[in-house]
Fold:
Amino acid sequence: MKSLVTGATGFIGSAVAHALIDAGHEVRVIVRTTSRRENLGDLDVEVCEGDLTDPASLRAALHGCDQLFHVAADYRLWARDPQQIYRSNVDGTINIMDAAHAAGVRKIVYTSSVATLGLTTDGSAADEDTPSSIEQMVGPYKRSKYLAEQEVIRRSRQSGLPVVIVNPSAPVGPRDRKPTPTGRMILDAAAGRMPAYVDTGLNIVHVDDVATGHLLAAERGRLGERYILGESDMHLKEILTLVAEVAGQKPPRIRLPHAAVMPVAWVSEAIARVTGIEPRVTVDGVRLAKKTMFYSSQKAIDQLGYRPRAARRAVEDAVRFFREHGYL
Structure:
């Protein structure tokens, strides 16, 4: 079984590549010429150079592959040019889905996000059937992932694209080298740089469990269906307290109203537009923090046999990685 993985130099993608190798798959990865490749390490993978905006390179990379794991995405809550996020997440997804369909790939696992799903009004856990719309999507990242997922669903229904969609929540763990927005939060808390918090909630999951969920989706998932891959619903104060405990720091004690943080976000983004350096506090991040983002993985548990480990293990592994690689 030969599988192509996009985004294998990134956080979730590298976890998927590791899981496939461990399961005995033959793995090919497609990477840009400019991508850092530390996450590939000494993995026994075939490397093809290409880009999601270059259909010819996608056709070449897919040649002879039985499965596609399309994990690559531009996960930023701010960009000087937001169209870059749409080009990667929407146009890139359309390109590789069309190339995979033309190549006759037998199974596709598309990595979406819980960002595309609706939320409940009472703060309880949402699921795959919770209604959502483009109007509910905050910022270019969420809107782009929503639009990309809709394109995948449309192709599944209209042309029989053999795709299963997975919706990871907020993955945490090793190899978060960039790091992702969630990883940056964990890193800052582990370094003692987050003495305050706002009222919000996230669903935390170990990145390696997300990777295992991808393999289960390929093996057992129903075509055209979505599966949330998460684990623990936690309020932000709980998350930061857990990180502080693991890292030997003091837990946060100051609760900030969202209105107090928004001016900081506006100033941070103004500075970022001048410097080009991504801000730590973003306007979209503050807007998202006003919502309690809890999700249920029961469908994946029931239909895929998904069994994620506790969030504490994810935090421990993330802190260990950051410490061992000089982030802390």
About this structure: Residues 2-172+206-232+293-309 form a domain with the Rossmann fold fold (CATH 3.40.50.720). The mean pLDDT is 92.
